[in-house]
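Researcher: If only I could read C-alpha cells as easily as an amino acid sequence. Walk me, if you will, through where the backbone shape changes along the chain. I have put the entry right below:
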Amino acid sequence: AGSYGRDTRGIYRQHQFEKVELVKVTLPENSYDELESLTRDAESVLQKLGLHYRVVEHCTGDLGFTCAKSYDVEVWLPSYNEFKEISSCSNCTDFQARRANIRFRRAGGAKPEFVHTLNGSGLAVGRTWIAVLENYQQADGSVVIPEVLRGYMGGLERITFD
C-alpha cells in the first residue's frame, strides 16, 4: 500500500499478521528494568526455537514519538542474508499514562503519580514461521521441526515434501 522495494511482497511483508502483544504497567523506578525483562521474554522464544537473533537498541533519532527507549529483536533470514525485525519492545515511560490519566498513589496518602507503560510484540507469527522454515530447511527440501515444537505436531520430527 504505497510502498516499494524488496520487502513489500510475499509472506515477509504482510498487511495483516498475527502476534502476541506484551504490555506492562509499572512503577516509574522499575520501568527500565522491566524493559529488559520484556525484551528477554521475546528473546526466550527465539532461544527455545534455536534461531539466531540479535537485539538492536534504537538511537534517539529512530525512536517513536511515544518512546523513551526501544529495542528491535531481529532474526536471521538466509533468503535475505541479513537479520530482519521480528519484535520491538519499548518503554514509553509516562507518555501514554499522561494521555490516559493512569495514576497510582503510594502508601501513606502521597500525591498521585503517573505509571510507566511498556509494550512489545511477542513475535510476529508469520515472520517466525519464515525463520523456522528457512533456518531448518535441509538440502533435500525437508524441514526439521525444532524440538520445542514437536509436542504440538504429534511428535513429527521432519516435514517432507514428497
Notes: The chain is about 25% helix and 30% strand.
